[in-house]
Design brief:
The protein has 112 residues and is an all-alpha fold. It contains 3 helices and no strands. The protein is elongated, with a radius of gyration of 27 Å. The model has no long low-confidence stretch (mean pLDDT 91).
């Protein structure tokens, strides 16, 4: 009877320790994911501002060279429209999804 009680206590403590380890691992993975998402958003917004100001600068430079008030901005807008359609049709065809999956699998293999 005493051996069974010790065995039950050992199993209970083992399960509690395993649960605590799993909980710590889960907290670590969640915090890592959340920090990655937050850093990604911050970097995205910084990149967005840089891109906006670079576009305004490029448009102004083109306006100066074409001696126009709007042609430079129209050219920059046209470039963005072309980029949009390239990304849109790439995503629609499924190639973008395959490229992203390939990169994610590459990252997963590196982390192992």
């Amino acid at each position: 009877m005493i051996k069974i009680d010790k065995l039950i206590d050992s199993i209970t403590s083992y399960l509690k320790i395993r649960f605590d380890i799993l909980k710590i691992d889960l907290i670590e993975k969640i915090s890592s994911s959340i920090s990655s998402v937050i850093s990604g958003f911050i970097l995205f917004f910084i990149l967005l501002f840089v891109l906006a100001f670079a576009s305004l600068t490029a448009g102004s430079i083109l306006n100066f060279y074409f001696e126009s008030e709007f042609l430079g901005y129209a050219i920059i807008t046209g470039i963005y429209i072309v980029i949009f359609f390239i990304i849109y049709f790439t995503a629609k065809s499924g190639r973008l999804k395959k490229m992203i999956e390939k990169e994610l699998l590459k990252e997963k293999e590196k982390s192992k």
